[in-house]
Each structure stands twice: as C-alpha cells, then as structure tokens.
Amino acid sequence: MQFGIFTVGDVTPDPTTGREPSENERIKAMVTMALKAEEIGLDVFATGEHHNPPFVPSSPTTMLGWIAARTEKLILSTSTTLITTNDPVKIAEDFAMLQHLADGRVDLMMGRGNTGPVYPWFGKDIRQGIPMAIENYALLHKLWREDVVDWEGRFRTPLQGFTSTPRPLDGVPPFVWHGSIRSPEIAEQAAFYGDGFFANNIFWPRTHFQKLINLYRQRFEHYGHGTASQAVVGVGGQFFMRKNSQDAVREFRPYFDNAPVYGHGPSMEEFMAETPLTVGSPQEVIDKTLSYRETYGDYQRQLFLVDHAGLPLKTVLEQMDLLGEILPALRAGFAEGRPAEVPDAPNHASLLAARNTAGLATANAQEV
Amino acid sequence: MRLVVVSAGLSVPSSTRLLADRLTAATTALVPEAEVELIELRDLAVDIANNLVTGFAGARLQAALDAVAGADGLIAVTPVFSASYSGLFKSFFDVLDNTALTGTPVLTAATGGTARHSLALEHALRPLFAYLRAVVVPTAVYAASEDWGGSGDPLTDTLPTRIDRAAGELAALMRGRAAVAPPAEETVVPFAEQLAALEKR
C-alpha cells in the first residue's frame, strides 16, 4: 500500500489574513511539500497540471525533475497529466526523460482536464475529450513499447518511422493510472490495458466513485489481467487534523467556508457527512481513511490533498508532520486482513522483474 | 405507476401548491392506481443552492431528484416571477440530470397575480421541458388571482375545465407509458469498439 499527497497547485489567498502567495512562493511551497513527503516516509508525491490562473503547475516534469534530484525514495507522479490537450509524443519523451533522471521513480496519471477554454487554447475541441483520451493514450502506449512507430490517427499529424527518445528506462514504460470522476469509458480504458484506476474521492460522496471503481474492477477481470480484487486502485482523500478535534474544526472552518471549490455552500459538518473530508483528531482521520476500503475494496494507493483553500505552507507542513505520525497506524490498519492475492501497486522494480520473468519464459519456450 | 408533483410556491399557504393539488386530484381521479409524491422545492431551497456550489446533491435532494427521474408522470408548477419561472424552479431542473426526464409525460402549470403572464408557460416552461426531451402535454394551466374566484363570464371562468383537460392529457400519456419497459442498466462500450470508432474509414 502506497501513501502520498497530491496537489492541485492553486494560488489562493489565505482567508484568515487575506494574504495571497506569489507564484514563486507557491511553486517553492509545492516542492517543499514534496521534500517533506519523503522526510515523513510517504511513498508518492503527485502534482496537477493546469494552464490557467490561479494555478501554477503548467510544467509537471520540470517540477518533478527538480524533486527527483533532491529525493531518493519518493515516487513522482501526476494528478493528472492532460492526455487530451498535450501531444502524446511530448508526454512520451518528457516522462521517459524524467524516468531516467529519477532512476525509475516515476509513474503518471492520465486525465482529460475539465477547464473548457484550455481545449481551444491548445487547438482542441472539448467535445472530443473522450475520443482524444483514447486515441492519444493508444499512441503514447505504443511509443513506449515500440522502438519505431508508424502512426495515423485523427488528432495529431501522422508519424512515419518515428522513435521517441529517450527510450523508457530499462525498456520498461512508467506505470500509468487513469483518473476520472464520471466517465465509464475511462474506467473501461484503464481495465483494457491493465493500468491503474484512480478516483479522486474528494468533494463528492464516495458512492459516486464506487460505481466507477466497481466497473473498473469487473472489466479488469474481463480483460484477463487478474481477478477484480487484484485490479490496481488509487483513492484520494482530504483531511485537516489537530491533536484535539475541536481545534481542527475551529482552525479549518474559515478555510472551508471560503474554499474555491465548495465554499459558501453547505456547512463543514454537512460536507463531512456527505463527502470523504475529515476534520478532526488523528484518530478520526485514521478511522475514516481505513473505512475507504469498505467502499472500494482493498486498494493500492492513497493520496491526500493537504494544501488547498489558501492554507499557509507552515500549516500544511504541520499537517504533514501529523500525517507522518499516523502513517504507521494507517499502514498497519490497511495490512490487517488484506488478502494475500491483492498485489501492491506496480513500480519500476516490479515491472522490470515481471518483464524479465516474461522474457525468460519466452526464451525458454523458444529453446524448446 | 408513479406521479410526482413539483411545486415551487414559496408562501404557506401557496396558490402554486393549491393549483398543484387541484391538478394532482384531477389526474389521480383518472389514474387511481398512481402513487403520488409531492416535492415542495421550498423545503429543498438550501440543498439546491448547495448543489449548485458543490456539484453534488445532498441525500435529501438526491431522493427528490431520484423520484423525478423515476416518475411515470410529472406535474410541475411554478409561480411566475419577473416574466418567467422562479429561479428556484429553474435551479431544481438545472441540477437534475439532463436525461432524467427523457420521454416522461409532463404537465406544466403556473400561477401569477395577473393573466398577462400566462404565456410564460409557453415561452419558458415548454422549451425547458422540450430541452429535457420530456413529453409536455398540450394544455398548460395558468391560474391568475382572478381564476380562484369567478366573474360569471363562461369564456373566462375556465380554470376547472383547463385543469380537467390537462389532467386528462397527462393521464392518457401515463397510461400509454406504463407498458414501456424500464430502461436497461447503463452498459459500457467495450474498449475495442471505442478504439475502432476512431479509425479512418
């Protein structure tokens, strides 16, 4: 089981002081969080990708490359990489390069992006979002697995005799997750390839995400990648904790009430009842997080959103320290009663080993 | 058979609710087996606003939306505010899934202080439900203040007649629809088909 944080990268004024960080401060805050993630023993740091204010992370591999140079264990990931408006050729190149520099500590999550104007800014049509996600990923998948690619599709210029460089590290492409909040087509796509599926599990009731995860698990089995319980599932989460529950509630409320995504709507108490948000003591966060497996089945990756709604970096780092303190309890809780057949999330080492085993089997078969 | 009634009246008692009740009674007289569920939007006003802000319906609102989606017939009644349906009425249908009413028979009705706004039913409500691909009955019922009394003029004392005519139209459509099987569960398009659809022809 992997634990980590994912960040949207929004620049939001602190509602308690009115102070808005500069873009530079926000970018530096994000990489500081990544270093903190490694320090407290998290497994994953994932950054969003956006091409409009108030968001700063337009260039994820640049940021992740910086983090790669200053960490040793942390897996660098995205939440999400836009498979619609980015050229799949450039994604193949950028992430293979990152993979080499990070010695394989890289995976990525595909997403479509839901900001209408970004599509026309990149010469695309949002109504073609799903077909673009399907065709572009099919090309990306091929570019990482075939040295020389001939390609013709609807959404980019054809390729004849193209080789994406650098080739993936050890010939093993990064593991890919597909994130979606409402599209069964994407759950189906993830299942078809045997890739991971991620439900952000924030801001909405978990029953909503449960349907997509169940669909993904069934179709994963249908396509012969393993049983439904072996499908590779990632889940998000959102918390604010203090030693005393009342302190957490008091401190977070102004951030909740003014949050860009859900503020000025339901009360924090209603939102906690309806969505996976937990505001309370470390034990309450542990209990709530462990309950996700009852909804989604045993899963492989848990990412938390800890840095939105204008929370200052100091507070975010305190939240991460508390997360570090409950991490052993979370790991033990998720390990308890976990069936042996449920695999860990693939990483570079496991994919390399699987490739070598398969290669050996093929070689043996040829000798016979 | 399920008859759902959505009333967007704000005062208690409300003439919008009164009209909704009259239409319901006239319809159930013709479809006595119908189970009636009444949804007062006033009770859901905060939930509707919260849905607009958060993008999801809370449990109480979701139950109302599910009821509308599962209806075999819908009576939708709004007061006329500023020459159209009320904002609350529109917001409820804004947060409803845009396929939830496909093929559902709908009776539209409105109340107002003056009969001068009666065409709001035709220029505002009918297009709204046409967009939602509902089957809107030909008679839309408007009740102005004076309709609750009577002038003694048979040409204008027509509210009971219009209620009965609209209810008859709704009842006929509901009976016709009852034979139709419920839509199958959503099925996923196999990936190979999704991919093949993109190949050059």
From TrEMBL, chain A:
Coiled coil: none annotated. Residues 1-298 form the Luciferase-like domain. Pfam families: Bac_luciferase. InterPro entries: Bact_Lucif_Oxidored (IPR050766), LLM_FMN-dep_put (IPR023934), Luciferase-like_dom (IPR011251), Luciferase-like_sf (IPR036661). Gene3D superfamilies: Luciferase-like domain (3.20.20.30). CDD domains: Flavin_utilizing_monoxygenases (cd00347). GO terms for cellular component: cytosol. One of its GO terms (molecular function) is monooxygenase activity. Keywords: Monooxygenase, Oxidoreductase. NCBIfam families: LLM_CE1758_fam (TIGR04036). This is Putative FMN-dependent luciferase-like monooxygenase.
UniProtKB/TrEMBL annotation, chain B:
The keyword Oxidoreductase applies. InterPro entries: CE1759_FMN_reduct, Flavoprotein-like_sf, FMN_Rdtase-like_dom, NAD(P)H-dep_FMN_reductase. Keywords: Flavoprotein, FMN, Oxidoreductase. Residues 1-148 form the NADPH-dependent FMN reductase-like domain. Pfam families: FMN_red (PF03358). Signal peptide: none annotated. One of its GO terms (molecular function) is FMN reductase (NADPH) activity. Its EC number is 1.5.1.38. This is FMN reductase. It comes from Phytomonospora endophytica.
